Amino acid sequence: MNCHFCARRTFNIFARPLTGVRPSFGVRQLHDKPFQPRRPSDPFPGAGPSHRTRDATTRSPKAVATTTFDETTAEWTEGRATRPAWQAEKEAMKIKLNGEAWNPRKKLSPDTMEGIRHLHQTQPEKFTTPVLAEHFKVSVEAIRRILKSKWRPSDEEHDERMRRWDKRGERIWSNLVEMGIKPPKKWRQMGVGRAENSSKPVWKSRPRNQIIVRDSAPESFLPEEDIIPTVDASGNRKTETIIPLADRL
After folding, report:
1. Is residue 174 classed exposed, middle or buried when 0-12, 13-18 and 19+ CB atoms within 10 A define those classes?
2. What pLDDT is attached to residue 246?
3. Does the residue 4 lie in any domain?
């Protein structure tokens, strides 16, 4: 070993604490940050520690509100937040309609809808949404939309609406008259079910509320015995005796 090298090394060891001078060669600059062990999955070993929280790195912003972390199992579990019943029903109705417009089969008249709003406004504890839906035979969603609506028609819109409603009722009762059902007095005065050429109306030509039902069996078909047998007071079936016409004369 070179003696010059040994002397220089010895001088550096003993002279550095006294002078406080650090040599500018062969010394690695240390960082002020604490030592961070390298993670196996870290693709950039020289990068500093991330300032993001664990939630932000493992969950998306959308999943933060719907997932919770279980400390016992150390896993993220999905859970739905508590929602009111009307929000769940509204979401289910949107899925059921499949993006189509709201068009219920049974429609209430404007006067009926005003009555529904009045009943719910005067006695909300008694006339709740399920009670009104059960009474008027419509869905809960229909009652909710009626109560939620704040639109009120003008006089011209109200008259046009009533004309369309009367036309709809006239069309419905005209179909019912063809089935033999007598229309109410209001629709009879409007000409629904009126016969022409002095003939009898359709709903008077046969017993009221009776619809002709044609049997598939031919008229020549005669059953061997009565479909509904008759019994006497004792509960025994009556025996029918057939008497020839010559004997009866």
Report:
1. middle
2. 74
3. no
What would the two tokens of residue 236 be? Answer: 């025994």
Cα–Cα distance, 86 to 94 (Å, whole number): 12
Range of the structural domain that residue 147 is part of: 105-152
Enter the tokens of residue 35: 């030592």
Contacts of 30 (CB under 8 A, 6+ apart): none
End-to-end CA distance of the chain: 159
- Give domain status of residue 41, yes or no: no
> Helix count (H) and strand count (E) of the chain?
10, 2
H-helix or E-strand containing 36?
Answer: none
Q: How many domains does the chain have?
A: 2
Q: In angstroms, rounded to a whole number, what is the distance separating the alpha carbons of residues 202 and 180? A: 6
Beta bridge partners of 70: 75
148-197 pLDDT, tens per residue? 988 888 889 888 988 988 888 889 988 888 887 888 888 888 888 877 77
CA distances from 100 to 71, 89, 90, 96, 138 (A): 44, 16, 14, 9, 19
The pLDDT of residue 56 is 43
CA 104 to chain centre: 13
Residue 229 neighbours by CB under 8 Å, 6+ apart: 237, 238
178 lies in the same domain as 142: no
Q: How many CA atoms lie within 13 A of 104 on its CB side?
A: 15
Q: Residue 244 is encoded by which pair of tokens?
A: 């020839």
**Which regions in the chain score pLDDT beneath 70?**
1-6, 11, 14-81, 101-105, 205-240, 249
**Token couple for 123:** 């006695």
